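Section 5: illustrative case.
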């Protein structure tokens, strides 16, 4: 396959060298066209050595070959990485000031943009409009990854990993111009964080959930093309851009929000850590500690089982017009009566959800950490699927499994 690899002028250009190697090692013929700014980050010698082909960014080199026309005509695929805000704007407005933008105007095959820029640039209305313009013309524009940026800040704007771009590029070619993200057109509701049950105006019963896994799931679902609604309980991380955020605090508030959101959702992912119990009474004033009074006794009552209620609503035909898939999370510990998976399988049977994502929790496991290790159990009885790595990587695996289930398995089977 003949690939044109356009390199924009951003710090992430150094990661594109790995993408180039993936293409060449897969046997593809790659012509690299860096912008002039890109050569200030990675020189042409690097691109020539890795591609085995001459590299230029000028329309006046090898004029006899008419490269500004020929390269776009001959390319089976054009990949732009990093696609900077400037390069997206030039592509959207049809500018042709250098060899790369000329090639984009002449491209007959599929075009994939992999954006990378600062968060504010990515979220700016002008950039979003340029992205929508390019997508409306048939180009595929990946969502940037979320994480540490050039400076000390973090957010959406990181270049997707080379392997992600490589896989998306091959999928785009295989599907030609009809390439679709796995959750395109789907609405996904995700709960995240930990609920807090008030005791009095200053105290509450809570848990250790940071919300990191739920946020990572929201990012993965958004990047897979879904319209995402995040039911956000207490979280130690900010919600991602590009998703609808519904703030909640208690289990009862989450129940109300989840039941309402499920009405128009194709997928509901209950990843929040929901309190099993709440105080039966909440004091209007701070509970005082006095030497002349007895220790307070706090009576707890059960919170509703939101996941089970969502399943019952779905199965009763409450959302009969859509084939809804429901995913639960189980944070489990083993004991003398059974291991983590034994408890998880019993929970899957009780809850009746389609998928159950299970992790082994402890004082130094899962909650608040950046990594996770899970097992995905399916009500259909298929083999358990393991996923481990960063919470971003685990989320990608979960969303990929959800996409498969939606396209291959009837949730009500």
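Designed sequence:
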């Amino acid at each position: 396959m003949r690939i044109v690899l356009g390199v924009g002028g951003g710090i992430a250009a150094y990661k594109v060298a790995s993408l180039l190697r993936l293409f060449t090692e897969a046997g593809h013929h790659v012509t690299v066209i860096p912008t002039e700014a890109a050569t200030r980050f990675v020189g042409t010698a690097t691109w020539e050595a890795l591609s085995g082909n001459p590299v230029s960014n000028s329309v006046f080199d090898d004029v006899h070959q008419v490269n500004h026309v020929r390269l776009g005509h001959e390319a089976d695929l054009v990949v732009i990485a990093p696609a900077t805000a400037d390069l997206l704007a030039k592509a959207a407005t049809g500018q042709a000031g250098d060899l790369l933008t000329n090639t984009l105007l002449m491209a007959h095959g599929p075009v994939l943009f992999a954006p990378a820029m600062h968060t504010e640039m990515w979220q700016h209305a002008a950039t979003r409009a340029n992205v929508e313009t390019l997508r409306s013309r048939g180009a595929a524009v990946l969502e940037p990854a979320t994480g540490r940026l050039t400076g000390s800040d973090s957010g959406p704007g990181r270049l997707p990993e080379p392997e992600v771009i490589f896989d998306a590029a091959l999928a785009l070619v295989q599907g030609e111009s009809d390439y679709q993200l796995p959750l395109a057109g789907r609405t996904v509701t995700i709960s995240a964080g930990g609920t807090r049950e008030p005791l009095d105006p200053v105290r509450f019963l809570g848990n250790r959930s940071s919300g990191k896994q739920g946020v990572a799931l929201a990012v993965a679902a958004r990047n897979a093309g879904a319209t995402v609604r995040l039911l956000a309980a207490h979280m130690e991380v900010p919600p991602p851009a590009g998703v609808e955020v519904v703030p909640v605090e208690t289990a009862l508030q989450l129940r109300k929000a989840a039941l309402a959101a499920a009405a128009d959702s194709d997928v509901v992912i209950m990843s929040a850590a929901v309190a099993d119990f709440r105080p039966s009474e909440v004091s209007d004033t701070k509970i005082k500690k006095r030497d002349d009074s007895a220790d307070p006794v706090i009576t707890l009552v059960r919170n509703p089982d939101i996941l089970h209620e969502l399943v019952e609503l779905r199965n009763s035909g409450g959302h009969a017009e859509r084939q809804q898939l429901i995913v639960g999370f189980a944070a489990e510990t083993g004991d003398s009566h059974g291991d983590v998976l034994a408890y998880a399988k019993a929970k899957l049977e009780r809850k009746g959800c389609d998928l159950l994502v299970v992790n082994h929790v402890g004082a130094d496991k899962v909650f608040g950490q950046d990594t996770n290790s899970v097992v995905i159990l399916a009500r259909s009885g298929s083999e358990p699927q393991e996923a481990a790595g960063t919470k971003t990587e685990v989320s990608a695996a979960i969303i990929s499994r959800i996409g498969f289930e939606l396209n291959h398995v009837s949730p009500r089977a």
